[in-house]
């Protein structure tokens, strides 16, 4: 068992001290424990993150990670189907879960004196899941409906799905988290149980507890509830198929009668934040902020929405919290009457001008202030903070990586941003998508 | 519905055994009082200011003036026009939010420790020298009118307006603070300036802060920010008298759904039975995990997706009110079930299990409200307006726990008046007869 204390010792040169009080432990069965103290109010957020996501599915079983997340609410021998959420609600709390390409997480938010109760429930379903054929049949219908509602009824979501499939030629990030419908339809109880037994174990999980708690008390509870669960010897490192060199831009047009607002979007492969090596990702983050972070003052918004009024919306985005290479995206929603080809041309002209002119010093100073402020305001939200640590650790980053990040962002120079831009904005690595109405496509 | 915006003030209730919110009572050198929770872990401060009065201060014939004025405070001040003010604010990474309701004008601000003085200067400019430029007035007036146009086609808004009028008559609570199409169109810049002078003054101010600021720093900041505001604003409205005569009001409206709202007399926050009434409301139709009305109207009969009741306490009146949406064919049955549940609880009270479950829910849900410095600052202002002691959060759950089954039964018999319910029905409801 080791305990590392962080937080109060961490001082930033340019900005005030972060006062996160973050402690980490490891249980004997390999489960990581992160405790984030926030004693402002007697509230606690309890999360369990499994280092398993849709990108870790067996080929042909797309959607199983998300399907299992739904099935985790079907109960155990001690808890009836659906009762976990009811028990938490009866305590005045809330609960939910989510699945991404890289991880699956379950969480509850309750009064701090009820931490033991939610830990009991969550640890129970880590190893005692009870699944009947009927539960699986019913819930399969639910995920198929979810796909219908969230993806198939939404042309924008369909375009994103098609673009991801084109962006990743070999890596499983090209497969949607919800799953391809024909494969979802075939997912069985046995598939779910196999995935559960192969991946749900304390040595593949991170416990994050944030709020009005003392680290030693959390550790004692974690030992009591999660400690007895045996580790699995089936957990393997996540080594996924990697991308070959991408030699040609891919271009897609998705035409759909339901499209009300056509737009053009381009994604580029972009390196992710890596343990101990986040500098380039930090530069890409600032690039996204400069180009399209604000709806009024960013380079794209200023040029396309205010100076020329050719777009109703223009932005850039990048996350970087992932196991493997992420994407950097640009989007422009043109004003009515402006074609997508012209909108794309205008977008490229703005980017080309940015590459030529470089970073405007006043913009850069404002962005850094806003980035710094966003990091500070984010710390007011305990649940958000728990999510930040949980997601980072679930993709292999460390607590130190999380705590270094704000300082790193402030230290990035304009030259580094431009170097990152040259590297990322490479059309060979890009997918350009048009979302359009059927008439316009003809 | 503006009428219900300030309910948050009442549902805030206590803190159990863990962290206690350490509230300091601060008086600035210039005499401005505030409550403060110091939290130096995160280098920013949330500041909450409330000027009592709000849209109820609209002058005769000027309905909507305070609402429009409030939306314009951030649209330019001093030598900064609308764009200039926004750029200055963003460069400081400060956040200002201005709002109004029937009882007050609210200012919620967040600013970094590193540029606090500049952010406070900018906010001071907005609170002392708003420009109310003609182009900004017309733009925001357009937004208000567009909101009113959609409200006119929204059954919930239509019902809210009918309920207000029926409940409070000629008191300002009897009409919506946004104003009418005609009244808003007729507002001049002078009306807006008058509304600002009437609303934003020192004699009606409640302030609190939470975050990275000491009591001494807060005191100095308050004098700088609020010290030169006018001493007096417009006279506050008097107490509203609730019309509790039973009745059913109808407004036909096309569509498959009927919106039903209902009310009866409420209970004041300072009434010794208030906590028992809160628990009673929670069991009857609270927003928790289950309630009598949810069981009877939704679970057993499938008449709706949701039904809820609220103990609404405003500065000048209180009511027990609720709402439900049903298919047109089910409206009559839903009303009957509500009356039956009302009569049953009034006569028989609630069960021990309902009481125990509700205490578990309420004591567990309470601390979840203290969700960040902004929420804490807002709750602190609400507490001051209600006249609560600064140690109240630490004792609130004990007050809930102290309520007995006999208390709830006694209060149910006293408070609930099944024969004096007023229903407002908007839609193509079948079998519902209006009585007025």
- Please give the count of helices of chain A: 16
Q: Which chain pair shows the most residues in contact?
A: A-B, 40 and 45 residues
SSE series of chain B: HEEEHHEEHHHHHEHEEHHEEHHHHHE
What share of residues of chain B is helical?
40-55%
Which blocks of ≥5 consecutive residues of chain A have pLDDT under 50? Answer: 1-19
Q: CATH superfamily of the largest domain in chain B, called what?
A: Metalloenzyme, LuxS/M16 peptidase-like
Low-confidence stretches of chain B: 1-17
From the N-terminal CA to the C-terminal CA of chain A, the straight-line distance is 65 Å
Radius of gyration of chain A: 23 Å
The number of helical runs of chain B is 16
Task: Give the CATH architecture of the largest domain in chain B.
Answer: 2-Layer Sandwich
Basic shape of chain A: globular
Overall mean pLDDT of chain B stands at 92
Structure at a glance:
The complex is a heterodimer of chains A (442) and B (436). Chain A is of the alpha+beta class and 442 residues long. In chain A, 43% of the residues lie in helices and 18% in strands.
Structure report:
The complex is a heterodimer of chains A (442) and B (436). Chain A is built from 16 helices and twelve strands. With 442 residues, chain A is of the alpha+beta class. In chain A, strand 10 and strand 11 form a beta hairpin. In chain A, helix 1 crosses helix 7, helix 9 crosses helix 15 and helix 10 packs across helix 11. The longest helix of chain A is centred in the first third of the chain and has 20 residues. Chain A is globular. Chain A starts with a strand and ends with a helix. A six-stranded mixed β-sheet of chain B has the order 1-2-6-3-5-4, with helices on both faces. In chain B, a hairpin with a 2-residue loop joins strand 4 and strand 5. At the A-B interface, helix 2, strand 6 and helix 12 of A face helix 3, helix 13 and helix 14 of B.
């Amino acid at each position: 068992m080791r305990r590392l204390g962080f937080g109060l010792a961490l001082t930033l040169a340019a900005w005030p001290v972060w006062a996160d009080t973050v402690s980490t432990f490891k249980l004997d069965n390999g489960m990581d424990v992160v405790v984030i103290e926030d004693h402002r109010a007697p509230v606690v957020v309890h999360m369990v993150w499994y280092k398993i996501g849709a990108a870790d599915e067996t080929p042909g079983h797309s959607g199983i990670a998300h399907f299992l997340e739904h099935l985790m609410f079907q109960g155990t021998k001690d808890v009836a189907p659906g009762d976990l959420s009811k028990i938490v609600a009866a305590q005045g709390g809330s609960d939910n879960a989510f699945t991404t390409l890289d991880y699956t997480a379950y969480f509850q938010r309750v009064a701090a004196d009820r931490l033991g109760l939610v830990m009991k429930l969550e640890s129970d379903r880590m190893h005692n899941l009870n699944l009947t054929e009927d539960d699986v049949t019913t819930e399969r219908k639910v995920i198929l409906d979810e796909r219908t509602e969230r993806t198939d009824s939404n042309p924008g979501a369909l375009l994103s799905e098609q673009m991801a499939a084109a962006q990743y030629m070999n890596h499983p990030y090209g497969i949607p988290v919800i799953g391809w419908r024909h494969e979802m339809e075939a997912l069985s109880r046995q598939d779910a149980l196999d995935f559960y037994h192969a991946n749900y174990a304390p040595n593949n999980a991170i416990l994050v507890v944030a709020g009005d708690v003392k680290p030693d008390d959390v550790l004692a509870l974690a030992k009591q509830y999660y400690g007895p669960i045996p580790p699995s010897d089936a957990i393997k490192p996540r080594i996924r198929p990697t991308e070959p060199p991408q030699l040609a831009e891919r271009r897609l047009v998705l035409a759909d009668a339901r499209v009300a607002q056509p737009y053009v979007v381009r994604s580029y492969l972009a390196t992710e934040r890596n343990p101990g090596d986040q500098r380039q990702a930090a530069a890409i983050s600032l690039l996204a902020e400069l180009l399209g972070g604000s709806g009024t003052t960013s380079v794209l918004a200023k040029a396309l929405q205010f100076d020329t009024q050719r777009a109703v919306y223009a932005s850039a985005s990048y996350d970087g919290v992932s196991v493997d290479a992420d994407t950097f995206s640009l989007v422009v929603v043109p004003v009515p009457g402006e074609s997508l080809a012209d909108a794309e041309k205008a977008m490229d002209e703005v980017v080309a001008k940015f590459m030529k002119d470089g970073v405007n010093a006043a913009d850069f100073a404002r962005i850094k202030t806003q980035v710094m402020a966003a990091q500070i305001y984010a710390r007011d939200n305990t649940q958000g903070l728990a999510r930040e640590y949980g997601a980072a650790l679930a993709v292999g980053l460390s607590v130190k990586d999380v705590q270094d990040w704000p300082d790193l962002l402030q230290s990035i120079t304009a030259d580094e941003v431009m170097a990152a831009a040259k590297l990322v904005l490479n059309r060979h690595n890009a997918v350009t998508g048009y979302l359009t109405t059927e008439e316009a496509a003809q | 519905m503006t009428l219900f915006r300030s309910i948050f003030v009442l549902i805030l209730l206590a803190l159990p055994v863990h962290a206690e919110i350490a509230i300091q009572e601060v008086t600035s050198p210039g005499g401005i009082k505030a409550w403060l929770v110091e939290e130096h872990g995160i280098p920013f401060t949330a500041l909450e200011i409330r000027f009592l009065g709000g849209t109820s201060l609209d002058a005769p014939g000027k309905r909507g003036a305070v609402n429009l004025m409030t939306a314009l405070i951030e649209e330019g001040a001093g030598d900064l026009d609308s764009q200039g003010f926004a750029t200055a604010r963003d460069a400081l990474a400060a956040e200002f939010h201005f709002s109004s309701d029937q009882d007050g004008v609210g200012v919620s601000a967040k600013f970094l420790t590193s540029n606090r003085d500049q952010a406070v200067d900018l906010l001071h400019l907005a609170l002392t020298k708003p420009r109310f430029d003609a182009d900004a007035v017309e733009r925001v007036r357009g937004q208000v009118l567009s909101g009113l146009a959609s409200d006119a086609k929204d059954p919930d808004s239509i019902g809210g307006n009918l309920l207000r009028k029926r409940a409070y008559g000629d008191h300002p609570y009897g009409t919506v603070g946004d104003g009418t199409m005609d009244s808003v169109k007729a507002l001049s810049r002078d009306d807006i300036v008058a509304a600002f002078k009437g609303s934003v003054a020192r004699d009606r101010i409640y302030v609190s802060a939470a975050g990275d600021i000491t009591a001494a720093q807060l005191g100095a900041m308050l004098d700088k920010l609020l010290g030169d505001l006018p001493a007096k604003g417009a006279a506050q409205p008097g107490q509203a008298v609730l019309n509790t005569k039973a009745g059913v009001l109808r407004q036909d409206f096309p569509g498959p759904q009927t919106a039903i709202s209902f009310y009866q007399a409420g209970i004041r926050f300072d009434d010794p039975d208030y906590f028992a009434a809160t628990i009673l409301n929670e069991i009857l139709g609270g927003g928790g995990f289950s309630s009598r009305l949810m069981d009877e109207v939704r679970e057993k009969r499938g008449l709706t997706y949701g039904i809820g009741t609220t103990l609404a306490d405003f500065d000048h009146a209180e009511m027990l009110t609720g709402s439900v949406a049903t298919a047109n064919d089910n409206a009559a049955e839903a009303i009957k079930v509500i009356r039956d549940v009302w009569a049953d609880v009034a006569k028989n009270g609630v069960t021990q299990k309902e009481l125990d479950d509700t205490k578990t829910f309420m004591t567990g849900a309470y601390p979840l409200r203290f969700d960040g410095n902004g929420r804490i600052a807002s709750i602190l202002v609400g507490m001051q307006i209600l006249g609560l002691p600064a140690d109240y959060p630490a004792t609130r759950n004990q007050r809930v726990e102290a309520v007995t089954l006999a208390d709830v039964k006694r209060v149910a018999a006293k408070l609930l008046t099944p024969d004096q319910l007023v229903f407002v029905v908007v839609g193509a409801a079948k079998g519902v007869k209006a009585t007025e």
